[in-house]
Structure formats: structure tokens, C-alpha cells
Specification:
Elements: H1 7-28, H2 42-52, H3 59-70, H4 76-96, E1 106-107, E2 110-111, H5 113-116, H6 119-138, H7 146-160, H8 165-176, H9 184-209, H10 214-241, H11 244-247, H12 253-256, H13 262-285, H14 296-307
Antiparallel strand pairs: 1-2
Helix pairs in contact: 1-3, 1-4, 2-6, 3-4, 3-9, 4-6, 4-9, 7-9, 8-9, 9-10, 10-13, 10-14, 13-14
Amino acid sequence: MGDGVTSAEFEARLKAAADATETMLDGLLHRAPLPGETARPPRFLEAVRYSSLGGGKRLRPFLLIETARLFGIEGDGVARAAAAVEMIHCYSLVHDDLPALDNDDLRRGRPTTHRAYDEATAILVGDALLTYAFDVTSDPATDPDPAVRIELVQALARAAGLGGMIGGQVLDLEAETASEPHKAEFVIQLQAMKTGALLSYSVNAGAILGRADGPARAALAKYGQALGAAFQVADDILDVEADEAALGKRAGKDADRNKATLVAALGLEGARERRDRLAAAAIAALDLAPNREAAEILKEAARFVAIRKS
């Protein structure tokens, strides 16, 4: 780890963000209906909770929480925004695992939602989490300023939607049937959409909640984009190098399905070099961010992304 933050300090902050997100998700996914709702079906709510609670590093919430903290913003509102982005992430995993897409049986070391329940339930779980994320983000309890909430909602929709995560998933599916080798430029665009957009949003959302000025927003945007790209390259490498027990999901599936990865496009060593360059670029971007001492934890996140084993 770096000089500014020790490994133990980083792991403690990552766990604290995960715990805060878990607590908030647990509270939001309760049985009692909200005003305007009629009822929350018990078995279905159980499936939603199964898909959302008790797993994952919660990196996206961590990035949102720690970016907001750069500007002195903490508390339940930030935790709500963090829980919302995690709902989007969890929904994407539930749908990604379906037979029509990646057809995976294992996620986070346990059966995927469609295996634990059924396909129809898994589709609806994803739909519910996606919808609820915007409910939570738009609620005054997340931020009292309607302009802030509107900006969050629009940024989240664009990161998760047609020109972001979903568009990237479409390109990912199309790539599986390609007869020609995937070019690096195409893979980079795909990954910026499918994975990078939501990670970048998490940083952006913290800046929005923190009322960051233009220069700070620009520096954090560069950080979020580089970190999101590094994360996905690292994921490509892990699919080749890590075993199933460490990943908590099936390993080696990318090559089997002709997935568009930077390991395939650049080779394993080329992918490692790109991952490390991107992590360094993310760290350098934070030299222009406010409160450089507090930003050390975000620098450590970039190092973590590059060296993670799962």
C-alpha cells in the first residue's frame, strides 16, 4: 500500500463503508410498505434481500462515501445515495447472471438469484432494485436540496442506462458472436460503459453531494474514469489468473464465451501494464483534488483495485 494510508486503515474504511451500506440496505428493504405502496410480497422481498445483502466489497458505495467526505459531507443522506448505487450494481449482477446473458450459477460464493429462486423472480428482482434506487435517490431524506437530487438522478440514469452500463452490456453480448478478434479500442469503450460508468458515477455523486466546484469536479472525474477502467482490466486479468474459490464465481468464462477483454486484445502482460498505468493516472488526478490529505484514502482505493485478488 501507499505511504499515506496503511493497508489496515484502508481495509477498515472499506469495511466501515460496507457496513454502513449494509445497514442502510437492510433498513430500506423492510417488509412494511412505504406511503404510496400497497404491499411488499414476502417471498419476493426475501429474494430482493438475498440479492442485495451479505456480500461484495461495496466498492461503489465506498467511493461515494469517501468522495463526499472530502467535502465534509457524511451521514444518512450519503449512506442512502451509497445504498442506491449498490442497488443498481446488484440488479445488474442479477440480470447478468441470467441464462439469456452470462448463464452463471455462482455469485459471491453462493447460488445466483435465478438458481436460488427462479428466472422470473430474478428478472423482477432486478427490475425492483433498479426502480427503488431512483426512489431512494430522489427522496428528500437523501439531500434536502432538490437541485442536488435532480443532478444525482440524471447522472445515475445516464451512467446506468442506454449510453452507460446497459449500452455496454449490449456491446458485450454483440462481441460474443464476432468472428474477428476484438480490437483494444472497442474493448476500452465497452468497458468504460459496462463497468466504468457506474464506478465513475459513484465518485461523481460524492462530489455532487459535496457541492464541489468546477476544478474539483474535473479532477475527481478524471480519477473516477481512470479507476473504473483499471477495475475492469483487473477483472479481465483475474478471470485468467484467479481460481473460482477466490473469485466467488466461475473463472475462465471470458475466453470460453469469446468475451471482449483486454487480456484477449493486448495479451496478459499488456493488460497488466495498462491496469498499472490507469491506477497511476487515477492517483495523479487526486493531486488536483481538494483536501489532498483526506484524498489519500481514494488513492489507496486505486492501488487496491490494481492488486485485488477477487
